[in-house]
Amino acid sequence: MKSTIRVFFGIFLAATTVTATQAIAADGENIFKAKNCQSCHYTAGPAREKSIADQLAKKGPELWYAGSKFQSAWLQKWLQDPAVIRPLAYNSLSEMNLGNHARLAADDAVAVSEFLMSLVSSEVEAGVIKPKNHPKGRLIFRKKMPCSGCHQFPDRNKISGGMSGPSLVGAGSRLNPDWIYAYLKNGQVFKPFKDMPTFAGLLRETDLQAVAAYIATFE
Ligand code: HEC
Ligand code: HEC
Question: Which atom of ligand 1 is nearest to the CA of 103?
């Protein structure tokens, strides 16, 4: 009898926690709309159902898979203090990113982050990639493939790499390692019209996994 009560109480507690999280996420969605974030960001996917014109209509990256892409601690912090990620303006290969992204107060950032983390993609398999300073991944990223020609990355005490892609400095705390792999394997799902070449046919799956694991160590 006692254990039945305990189980029942446990379920009750779990249910309350879930509802509390959902309530914060719902709050976050309202703030997202009130602050007009959706004028630049899609929160409904998938990308492949949108035309090129649809894609270019938004001035910021799609967020419908934000919960699969980001780490929540990073997201909460970034929304309050948004540092430049893409050296160049979004979808541009010539204009600089002016670094003037909207910022949120702490409470709002927590709620919006909860909302964005609830948006996930079924294309990202969890628990496949563990961060690892993989020699093969390192070789591919730095030498065998042109990754570092387009992406900044931490190179001992300095930052190296090109500027046409998003900076991967800090990718270890910003990105979900499993999303990095999903993006390399099947980038079309997340960004059908993109400036990054597809490597899925050029590299083996184990190589893509090695690069993903390597990027996930970037501080
Ligand atoms: C005027 C257009 C615009 C508005 C309004 C805007 N954003 Fe953004 N957002 C951008 C751009 C451009 C980037 C890319 C910034 C970078 O790479 O440094 C971005 C990046 C982001 C990212 C990181 C996405 C990624 O893939 O790197 C998040 C999360 C985000 N915005 C959330 C928000 C939220 C929340 C709001 C509302 C408070 C908001 N944005 C309002 C244009 C906008
Ligand atoms: C010609 C330039 C170019 C090359 C080469 C390139 N990328 Fe990219 N990469 C981009 C651009 C641009 C984006 C942003 C999305 C887009 O427009 O495709 C991107 C996005 C990414 C992202 C997602 C980053 C984010 O925050 O959204 C990762 C991870 C990534 N690239 C890894 C790689 C790896 C690994 C390689 C080598 C195997 C590589 N890239 C080669 C240009 C490049």
Answer: 38
